[in-house]
From TrEMBL:
Keyword NADP: yes
Name of protein: Sulfite reductase [NADPH] subunit beta
HAMAP family xref list: CysI (MF_01540)
Organism for this UniProt entry: Tuber aestivum (summer truffle)
PROSITE patterns for the chain: FLAVODOXIN_LIKE (PS50902), NIR_SIR (PS00365)
Span list, region Disordered: 234-264
GO biological process, one term: cysteine biosynthetic process
Length: 1533
């Protein structure tokens, strides 16, 4: 025994299974619900415990499989590859696994099965598999379970046969100790195991001869004789050791002389050399031997049959159930003679059945045996064990004098009822003619709920959509929450069951219709009214919408009628609806067993809808075991030809799910909707599910499509709703001649269809590219120099390219490649190798160097003895300010250097470490490193080197673009790539669109050899964020048709679309123009969208400010005709006049080079600073005149947000006050400010090009005078004003004209539908009836503006219906905003929009506790320091630094008037929470009256105030302690 107690049989079994296997298949009810075995398995596995037989002594592998996902399928692949496999499961898997069990006979697999239900197990699950040919071993207590688990593994290894070890899980069992592994060492035949592990079994036959037919080996067991006192002494029955005593009269047990194998024979087993298939006698022999080993080591004795009781017994109970121990103890406890001659028999080894051995075990005196079988659902008159006994005892020569066998059905027995039950059995036995098939104990109690199947909560997404769509009409036949008396959940969840129940339901409705018909004709109602309504209904009973519309009326009339006839109909009122019939299944239906039910439904041709939810993650599929391959249910149904089929994924396209379900419902016949919802655990976060879904859909593993075999025209049969199609479908469609038409209609599919490149192809491409290049170099004479780079931002690549050019100029044969494009097998043949890498994230390699590094790092056979190498690394020594993080600085470069040296490489020169903190950044170190390299290569003194060509700058691109044309039009026509050229990428920004790629998919696509998933972000120009309802609907359409079905309301009050692919770009632009909007100058180095406070309560003032915003915007619009030419021409290149056209290409304001950088203007109307007036190049503060109207603006200039991490030359800045200008001249003031910037801004350094730096460089005074010079008049003194907040006011407000406005809370501006919240649909419905306008706010929210009183009620109802009126959020959430960041923004270093809501949820508990739930605290987050959500004006802000890590800023002004300051660098969630939680508590306790959080942080000394942009980097705590508790340690001064 070893330390550690075991509480349950499952724990004991799990441990033995783990120690004796290579692979344990742990079957669980669901992935997040552990089984009784799995926690032990996980504990051992996570502790790194090694198995005793595991190949190469490793840690056994645990594979978790869901109970309903055909778990035994998982056994074949490892078993066939020579792995010792065991399974831990409940008995509920056995029946459906019978086809597999036959195939497993010849594998040494052990299946440990705990019988269910645990309180009253049903042994019929065992008797049902008795004919499968498996060895069946039984145990009843925890101790027995542990011992028999050892025996099961011993037997499996020794015989090469599959063993099922079954046991009842008893809750009142006592704890035992872990068995010493010495026992395992002796019971498991290591040599036999190794023989099995060393060979692979190739057969994948369907038949029972799968596996290997085990032969007997020459060594059966190594049992030492007489090593302990038990070997030749009396046997201690296992029952004794497990607390159950043997017979009370002290007689010795019968097995002592009979069934135990002869010790002498065991001792000589080493000599037995045989070579023939294992026979059942061999199994008996091996079992006996292993039992003997157990006895020798533990003292506990086991036998094939076990008898306890007196030697002179005259009757015996043969128990096949969970209460053997109870009978034994009752017999022992009962005084007197009642049971003094009653014995108890059990079968330890139930199969093979060694009936002949039974007579050797039981005393000859026994004349009657009661067989007690715990079988709940009897299917035959005589129980299986009864027949077994009858066969062996009462046939053949044994018949004479053999005991009479009396069958009993064993019910539920408790210690209280055991005595009574025993008395009944014994009395029956002793009667002259015993009654056969007598029931003993209670029937069928209690039921077990522990192992029912439940639907994982995550799958509720699809249920919610069904509910939304069909409401009362929805009828789910196999819903798991419906009670189905007496039928197990496993059965009710099956398609067959659902199918049958739906047929019954259909019949019921038909009968109901007939009943209604009769009643409508009768006089059974009190009045005629119900009959009239019913007659109307009968005409439309099969039309779902018409009949549905009548139902409420009918129900009301029937209730009013009150007659018995009316009540009888009301009792079935659901049947008035033409129901939408659904069967819901999981991917268990995609395996053979479930699939047969699916087949039934499809073949029936009935109008039944099936929703099959597939939850296997795409990444898991990639590594999937071939023998677990699932059927493609969708493809199967398509092949059948009579079914509507759709493949959907709610996390990819919500709208497509809606379409598919509606079409399925409409289709008169079977419909199959296969729905994707990948997760590893049922509690996976939605973000994980979303990312996994995207990969699967993008790669074509899970294509989105709809197939209607009765489509009106052939070509309408198939709609491909995602971009790519998987191969199987492609083949199906090819077969189906409709494909040709599909391809004709959408020729781009043809390319997509065959667009799946394998990794091998990619390898070949690499090789070809390199070989071709080598050929090219053959003409050159100098030594070779291979330069490999890994680069995220382009600096490392730029350096590598330049080094390559310079090398070539020195006569070297240079080759420059990204590390990922280099065929790594050539590495050891290189002569001179230079590696240049930048540093990503937490000291990681950039994306295009990761695989290279992994291979180099893990390679064991790379020999670089003949390779000269050097490394240049780029990093930032201050990026990670904490001491413990310093090692991240230039880590990839340093790692490479060390590894290459370890592999034998010879250093050309020492590694160069470029540091962003050096005076010239990385160039400082580089300019010192490069000459050393040339020297080492002997090419340092070369004359006549050409000058490096100057780098192409944005300014060059603008000049060469011919007023923003570039080669955009040509690039759009190039269908070979989803991208456009680098210079066009700069130019399209001026047209309002950026090229991006989906970063969630980068790795996956790269591994598939595909270019990144390029798409475009399109930003509209929408002055002051006002849109009509018609425009809203058109924007909604555009997002559905061309984008990713969501819209982003931006921090600059406009619509932004993501995910528009290149070939849809032009159509999208045209659709936007048709909505009377434009995108020109929405991005780029021009004046962008002009913002304006949304101000719902002062409509007149707002109207005037809005007019000013439009005037400024139009005044500063670029004049180029390129926009119209590129985007708004039709396919014949004829110009389409959509929203006006310019005449000539001349930019009177901008000139050919436009502005040095972007330029932003905003208007704020006090007291609301909801547009962050201080954060823009020009901020205009509206000033009211004495007449209450807008008179003019105070003008701020030089605000701006974007900075670069750790570059102190960059900083955010609040605008400087220049003075006041009247309303009618304001556009001219803006123009002149812009012109001063145009002519004075820094065009050499884009990081220093914004107006804020121009102003700081020349001083506010000088700048102002330049503006006034251009104006030719002076700005007036700024007028007084007061702001009181920069957030929105949510809910209803009434303006001075009595019109109503409602501000919706749109978290982070994302307009999308989710099953929980169909917000986008709701807003669309509102837009359909709204007569006023929509106003987008600068905080990314939305105002429903100008609702008349008369429309108020209808609007309120609509809002309530879609839950858009919900404003029950914490003040923190209402005041938060985040930029887009991942997955589309190319600059994002960390999550933002997808993460901030999660972070806030984690803080809300503390806010609630501290009484701050309703307090507004402005919190903002961005994924990078570009600062799109204006983080530096928030009271608390987080700016992405690396994936999962943020810089934290505190102390911003609540009105957006003061910048915040860096408080902590690169902290992760845990630290964020550790800082903020106590800080919020402290704020709640110590704040002064009305004190804002940002001000509080400054007052208590947490942070210094930032007085102006230039002091942003001062007084920053750069190396804070890891865990800083502000409440304890006081202030950081
Ligand atoms: S702040 Fe940075 S990460 Fe966020 S959207 Fe702007 S550029 Fe992208």
């Amino acid at each position: 025994m070893v330390a550690g107690s075991v509480k349950t049989p499952e724990e004991a079994v799990a441990r033995i299974a783990y120690l004796s296997s290579d692979v344990v298949i742990s079957v669980q009810p669901t992935l997040s619900n552990a089984s009784a075995f799995s926690s032990k398995l996980e504990e051992l596995s996570s502790g790194g415990v090694k198995g005793t037989l595991t190949a190469s002594n490793g840690v056994p592998e645990i594979q978790t499989v869901r109970q309903n996902a055909d778990p035994l399928l998982s056994v074949f692949q490892p078993a066939r590859s020579g792995k010792l496999v065991s399974v831990t499961a409940t008995s509920s898997i056995l029946l459906s696994s019978i086809p597999h069990l036959y195939k497993l006979i010849n594998y040494p697999v052990v299946i440990h099965v705990s019988l269910q239900p645990s309180d009253f197990p049903d042994y019929s699950e065992i008797t049902s598999i008795r004919q499968t040919g498996l060895i069946l071993l039984q145990s009843e207590s925890t101790q027995e379970a542990q011992d028999m688990a050892v025996a099961a593994h011993g037997l499996a290894v020794k015989t090469g046969k599959a063993v099922v070890h079954f046991f009842a899980s008893s809750s009142d069992d006592s704890e035992i100790s872990n068995e010493d592994t010495v026992l395992l060492g002796r019971a498991l035949d290591r040599a036999a195991a190794r023989t099995y592990q060393s060979g692979k079994i190739v057969s994948t036959s369907l038949y029972a001869d799968d596996g290997v037919v085990a032969q007997t080996s020459n060594s059966i067991a190594s049992v030492a004789v007489g090593t302990n006192g038990h070997a030749s002494g009396l046997v201690t029955p296992a029952s004794e050791a497990s607390g159950i005593e043997p017979s009370s009269n002290g007689t010795s047990t019968a097995d002592e002389n009979s069934t135990r194998p002869s010790l002498t024979s065991i001792g000589s087993l080493h000599d037995a050399i045989e070579s023939r298939p294992i026979s059942s006698d061999d199994i008996h022999k091996h079992a006996s031997t292993i039992f003997e080993v157990i006895k020798q080591v533990t003292g506990r004795s086991y036998n094939v049959f076990e008898y306890t009781g007196p030697r002179n017994a005259d009757v015996a109970l043969f128990v096949f159930g969970s209460t053997t121990g109870l009978f034994r103890s009752t017999i022992k406890r009962t005084p007197g003679d009642d049971y003094s001659r009653v014995g108890v028999i059990t079968a330890r080894l139930y199969r093979p059945w060694f009936g002949t051995k039974l007579t050797e075990v039981i005393p000859k005196s026994i004349s009657k045996i009661a067989v007690l079988e715990q079988i709940k659902k009897k299917t035959t008159k005589w129980g299986p064990l009864f027949l077994d006994l009858l066969t062996c005892l009462r046939t053949g020569p044994a018949l004479k004098g053999a005991p009479v066998v009396v069958g009993h059905q064993l019910g539920f027995i408790t210690p209280d009822t055991a005595s009574q039950a025993l008395r009944g059995v014994v009395q029956n036995l002793k009667s002259e003619s015993p009654v056969q098939n007598l029931s003993v104990g209670l029937e069928g109690v209690p039921t077990d709920v522990g192992h029912s199947i439940s639907q994982p909560a995550i799958e509720a997404a699809y249920m919610k959509i069904l509910d939304q769509l069909f409401g009362k009409r929805l009828h789910i036949a196999n819903s798991l929450d419906k009670p189905n008396a007496g039928i197990s959940a496993t059965i009710t969840a099956s398609p067959e069951y659902g199918y049958g129940s739906l047929l019954a339901r259909m019949e019921r409705r038909q009968t109901f219709i007939e009943r209604v018909e009769n009643l409508a004709k009768s006089n059974d109602f009190t009045t005629r009214i119900p009959a009239e309504w019913l007659s109307k209904w009968l005409l439309v009973a099969d039309d779902e919408s018409k009949s549905g519309a009548l139902v409420p009326g009918i129900i009301m009339r029937l209730m009013v009628d009150g007659s018995p006839a009316a009540y009888s109909l009301l009792s079935d009122k659901d049947l008035f609806y033409k129901e939408s019939h659904w069967l819901i299944g999981s991917d268990a239906w995609s395996y053979d067993l479930g699939n047969s039910g699916v087949h039934h439904v499809i073949a029936s041709g009935k109008n039944i809808n099936m929703l099959v939810i597939d939850s296997q993650p795409y990444s898991e599929h990639a590594a999937a075991d071939a023998s677990r391959r699932k059927k493609d249910v969708g493809l199967y149904a398509m092949n059948f030809g009579n079914s509507f089929v759709a493949s959907v994924a709610v996390y990819s396209s919500y709208t497509q799910v809606l379409h598919a379900m509606l079409e399925a419902d409409k289709f008169d016949g079977p419909s199959v909707v296969v729905a994707y919802l990948p997760y590893n655990k049922e509690n996976d976060s939605p973000l994980t599910v979303l990312q996994e879904t995207k990969k699967a859909v993008d790669i074509g593993y899970w294509p989105l499509y709809r197939w209607n075999p009765r489509g009106e025209k052939d070509e309408k049969k198939f709609s491909l709703d995602s971009e790519r199609l998987k191969k199987e479908l492609q083949e199906f469609l090819k077969r189906d001649n409709h494909l040709s038409q599909l391809v004709k209609r959408n020729p781009q599919f043809a390319a997509n269809l065959s667009g799946s490149y394998g990794t091998e192809v990619r390898q070949q491409q690499k090789r070809k590219a390199k070989d071709a290049f080598n050929k090219l170099l053959e003409g050159l004479s100098g030594p070779p120099l291979t330069i490999l780079f890994a680069s995220d931002g382009g600096n490392a690549e730029g350096l590598a390219q330049r080094l390559g050019r310079r090398g070539k100029a020195r006569g070297l044969k240079t080759l420059v490649l990204a590390m990922e494009d280099y065929p790594i097998e050539d590495l050891s043949t290189e002569e001179n190798l230079v590696l240049i890498t930048s540093t990503a994230g937490q000291g990681e390699f950039p994306q295009n160097g990761r695989n290279f590094w992994e291979t180099v790092k893990n390679s064991t056979d790379l020999d670089l003895a003949t390779v000269n190498y050097t490394v240049f690394a780029l990093g930032d020594s201050h990026y990670w300010p904490r001491k413990e993080d310093k090692h991240y600085y230039n880590k990839p470069g340093k790692d490479l250097d060390k590894r290459l040296a370890d592999l034998g490489g010879r250093k050309l020169v020492d590694t160069g470490l470029g540091d962003d903190q050096d005076p010239d950044g990385y160039q400082t170190a580089y300019s010192e490193w490069e000459p050393r390299l040339w020297k080492a290569l002997g090419v340092d003194n070369v004359d006549g080197l050409p000058d490096d060509p100057p780098p192409i700058t944005n300014e060059d691109i603008k000049i060469a673009s011919n007023f923003l044309r570039g080669t955009i039009a040509e690039g759009l026509k190039d269908e070979s790539t989803g991208a456009i050229s680098a210079s066009d990428q700069q130019l399209t920004k001026f047209h309002g669109t950026y090229m991006q790629d989906d970063r969630d998919l980068r790795d996956e696509r790269k591994s598939q050899g595909l270019e990144p998933a390029y798409s475009f972000m399109i930003r509209c120009r929408l002055s002051s964020g006002v849109a009509t309802p018609e425009q809203w609907i058109k924007m909604d359409d555009i997002s559905n048709e061309f984008g990713n079905q969501t819209m982003k309301l931006t921090t600059r009050q406009t619509f932004q679309f993501h995910g528009v692919i290149k070939r849809k770009l032009k159509s999208t632009m045209q659709a936007i123009n048709r909505a009377l909007m434009t995108t020109i100058a929405a991005c780029g180095d021009v004046n962008r969208n002009v913002m304006c406070s949304s101000l719902p309560q002062h409509s007149a003032l707002h109207a005037q400010a809005h007019e000013a915003a439009i005037r400024i915007s139009n005044h500063l619009l670029p004049s180029t005709t390129a926009y119209h030419e590129i985007w708004l021409t039709d396919d014949d290149d004829k110009k389409v006049q959509v929203a006006g056209d310019a005449i000539v290409d001349h930019e009177p304001l901008y000139g050919p080079t436009y502005l040095p950088r972007k330029f932003k203007i905003t208007i704020a109307i006090p007291p609301h600073n909801d547009t962050d007036v201080y954060a823009h190049d020009i901020g205009l503060i509206a000033i009211k005149g004495g007449d209450g109207k807008l008179s003019g603006f105070n003008v701020l200039a030089g605000g701006g947000m974007g900075v670069t991490h750790n570059n102190k030359k960059t900083y955010p800045r609040t605008g400087s006050m220049l003075g006041y200008a009247p309303l009618d001249k304001i556009h001219l003031v803006c123009e002149k400010i812009m012109l001063v910037q145009r002519d004075n801004g820094d065009r050499n350094n884009r990081k220093h090009a914004r107006l804020k730096y121009t102003i700081d460089d020349m001083g506010v005074k000088v700048f102002k005078s330049k503006v006034e010079d251009l104006l030719t008049w002076k700005l007036e003194e700024a007028r007084p004003f007061k702001f009181h907040s920069n957030i929105d006011t949510f809910g209803w407000q009434v303006d001075e004209n009595g019109k109503n406005h409602f501000t919706f809370f749109i978290e982070n501006g994302r307009i999308e539908d989710t099953p929980e919240f169909p917000m986008k649909t709701g807003l669309r419905e509102i837009a359909k009836v709204h007569k006023g306008e929509f106003r987008l706010t600068g905080n990314q929210h939305l105002i429903l503006s100008s609702v008349e009183d008369a429309d108020l009620e209808g609007m309120r109802d609509l809002m309530a219906k879609y839950r858009l009126d919900n404003l029950q959020f914490s003040g923190l959430r209402l005041s938060s905003s985040a930029c887009v960041a991942f997955p589309t923004c190319g600059l994002a270093m960390a999550e933002s929009e997808r993460y901030l809501p999660i972070l806030i949820s984690k803080l809300e508990g503390v806010l609630e506790e501290s009484g701050l739930r309703h307090d507004s605290i402005v919190m903002r987050m961005t994924g990078c320091p570009n600062g799109c959500a204006r983080p530096w004006l928030a009271e608390v802000a987080f700016v992405g630094k690396a994936f999962g890590a943020y810089n934290m800023y505190l102390g911003g002004g609540y009105h957006g008037q003061r910048l915040n300051k860096l408080y902590r660098s690169s902290i992760k969630e845990e630290e964020i929470l550790e800082i903020l939680k106590p800080l919020f508590k402290r704020y709640a306790l110590e704040r002064q009256d009305g004190e804002r959080f940002g001000d509080f942080c400054i007052r208590i000394g947490m942070i210094k105030p930032t007085t102006e942009g230039k002091t942003f980097h001062d007084d920053v705590c750069v190396a804070p302690p890891l865990f800083f508790h502000p409440s304890k340690s006081g202030a950081h001064k």
